[in-house]
Amino acid sequence: MSKSAFLAAAFAALATSPTLAHVTLETQQAAIGSTYKAVLRVPHGCKGAPTIKVRIRVPEGMIAVKPMPKAGWALETVKGKYGKTYDYYGTPTAEGVTEVVWSGGKLLDEHYDEFVLRGYLTADLKPETTLHVPVVQECEGGGVERWIEIPAEGKSADDYKFPAPGLKLIPKK
Known about the structure:
Low-confidence stretches: 2-20
Strand content: over 45%
Mean pLDDT: 89
Number of strands: 12
Number of helices: 1
Shape: globular
Oligomer: single chain
């Protein structure tokens, strides 16, 4: 096999690799004790079918969440109690948005889109760890992609078929 044929085959294999098809965060690192804008990138539908709903579970330690409305999609927030009371700029905060749902739109399989929210990363979070943001993608015809696998100690997202998007937490400067 020629070098150019080998490179073309290697590129084709990478282009179809599941690791490149994951739902991911645009910015994959943020400081604890700060506001973070999460841009979740959804690269495709479900096995050819268009995405019609994107559901995000807000991880513990991310509070005061506000999602960005998206033209053509209905926006819903689910509120509930946090696992503990957090300090949000001097205000004790024990409940808020725990889930965000965009629905009613249509993301064709051959298209890509982004879903945005912002939240405060509490000072209680541990630096040099990864905060995972589970995402469930629902498609026409009942297809579902559950990007909810959280890597075990010593593993990475690439070790899983459906990893949750991860955010590396760094100390506040």
